[in-house]
Each structure stands twice: as C-alpha cells, then as structure tokens.
Amino acid sequence: MSRLILGVLGSALLLTACSGDKDDWRAAQAADTSLAYSHFVSQHPDSSHVAEARTRASALMVTETAAMSVGDTPASAVVAPAPAGDTMPVVEVPSPVAATPTVVAAPAAAPLQPAQQAVPPPKPAAVPGKPSSAKASGYGAQIGAFSSRAKAQAQWQTIEKRYSRELAGSTHQIAEGKAGAKAVFRLKVPQPSQAAAKALCSRLAAGGQSCVVYHP
Predict the structure, then answer these.
(1) Do the beta carbons of residue 203 and residue 145 sit within 8 Å?
(2) Helices 34-43 and 50-69, interaxial angle, to 10°?
(3) 152 with 185: CB under 8 angstroms?
(4) What is the CATH number assigned to the segment(s) 133-214?
(5) Which residues contact 76 (CB under 8 A, 6 or more apart)?
(6) First-to-last CA distance in the chain?
(7) CA-CA distance, 134 to 130, in Å (whole number)?
(8) Domain range annotation of the chain
(9) Which of 4, 59, 82, 137 gives the lowest tally of CB atoms within 10 Å of its CB?
(10) Closest Cα to residue 90, out of 44, 48, 42?
(11) Contacts for 47-55 with beta carbons within 8 Å, 24 or more apart?
C-alpha cells in the first residue's frame, strides 16, 4: 500500500515538474534573450530543452555583444549576471568612452585703436568792429523823458518819421534813470561830438521839437 502511495506521489511531482518545464521554456522563447535561456538552464538543468537553450543563448550572445559595441544594446540584454550554476559566460558591457571636445582657440583680438577725435576747424578770428564815434564821444541830444520804456520807444518812432531828414543816419538809446523816487526813461540820440549834438538840437528845435544837449 505504501509503495502505491509513493508511486502516485512521484508521478504527480513528475507531472508538476514537466508542467513547470514547459511554462518556463515558453517564457524563455518569448523573451528570446541570452539571459532568458541561461536562466532556464539554471532552473531546469535536466530538461530536454537544455541543449537547445544553450545553443540559442550562444547565438544571441554574439548578436547582443555586437549591438553593444556600436551603442545599440537591447534593453533586455543589459541586466544582472546569470544565476549561479549557469555555464554561459557573462558579457561585460563596455563603458562608453566620452568624446574629447575639440577646443578651438579663439583668434587673438586685434588691439583697439584709439578713436581719432575730429578736430574742428579753427574759427576765424573775430574782427573787432569799429566803435561808433557817437557812442565813444559821450555827447548827444536828449529829446524827452518818459515814465516807461514803451512810451519812450513809441515817441522815437513818431519823431523818427517826422524828422527823418534831421535824424538821417542817427540811432537812439533809452536810458533808465531816477527823478526823485520815480523811474524815468530818457530818449537820447548819441552824436560824435559836442558840436554835432548842438547842431542836431538846432535842427530839431527849428521844427518844433524840444532838445537838450547832454555830455559825458
């Protein structure tokens, strides 16, 4: 009776092992990598698929090694080493060699030349104007005193029109001064000399215009 029981148990274990063998073999074929076949060999060393698994693993090892040498390593191939007891060699993935950058020396910068400043052409020397003899003498004819500069200017325009012949070539000045506490604006006509100032006043007085000779 005990032999019968042992026989039944042995048959069950054998069937279970065969079932696991088949499932793992299908999984290894589906993965189709050297590591998957190596793992199958380590798990099922007595399987009838061991020889085929070793052959396929060797063939895949060559392909994966070539792919790694050109930087195209399949993701499934770069994994941990095969489990203990596996007779397949462990592939060492070569470390990528960092490319040495090529350093190109920059050309030496040309020395900066000092900016040439534009030199402006020299200005012609100013020719001093000839001073007016009338202003230089300090003599002239005063023909009125007014409370504002505007009134003095208006009076000059009137007199200049009325006595254009007597005043020919003459210019006028409006000198601000004081008459007590008030400001006055005296209308003056400078002349080159005292005699010229007296002559101008005589001509203006003959036409009815009051005039007073002033001196320096």
Answers:
(1) no
(2) 150
(3) yes
(4) 3.30.70.1070
(5) 31, 33, 35, 36
(6) 167
(7) 11
(8) 10-92, 133-214
(9) 4
(10) 42
(11) 47/21, 49/21, 49/25, 53/25, 53/28, 54/87, 54/88
**In which residue are the tokens 């007014």 written?**
146
d(CA 61, CA 200): 132
pLDDT digits (tens, 9 = 90+) for 4-34: 444 434 444 444 455 678 888 889 899 888 8
Residue with tokens 């009076």: 155
Structure tokens at 179: 């008459």
**Is 40 in contact with 24 (CB distance < 8 Å)?**
yes
Note whether 128 and 169 are within 8 A (CB): no
Indicate whether this model's pTM tops 0.70. no
Q: Under DSSP, is residue 199 helix (H, G, I), strand (E, B) or coil?
A: helix
Burial per residue of 145-179, b for 16 or more beta-carbon CB atoms within 10 angstroms, e otherwise:
bbeeeeebeebbeebeeebeebbeebebebeeeee
Closest C-alpha to 144, from 174, 170, 182: 174
56 Cβ contact partners less than 8 Å away, ≥ 6 residues apart: 32, 34, 37
| pLDDT tens for the chain, residues 1 to 216 | 445 444 434 444 444 455 678 888 889 899 888 888 888 888 889 898 889 999 998 888 877 766 555 444 444 444 444 444 444 444 444 454 555 555 555 556 555 555 555 666 665 554 443 444 455 678 999 999 999 999 999 999 999 999 999 998 899 999 999 888 899 999 999 999 999 999 999 999 999 999 999 988
Place of tokens 């048959």: 11
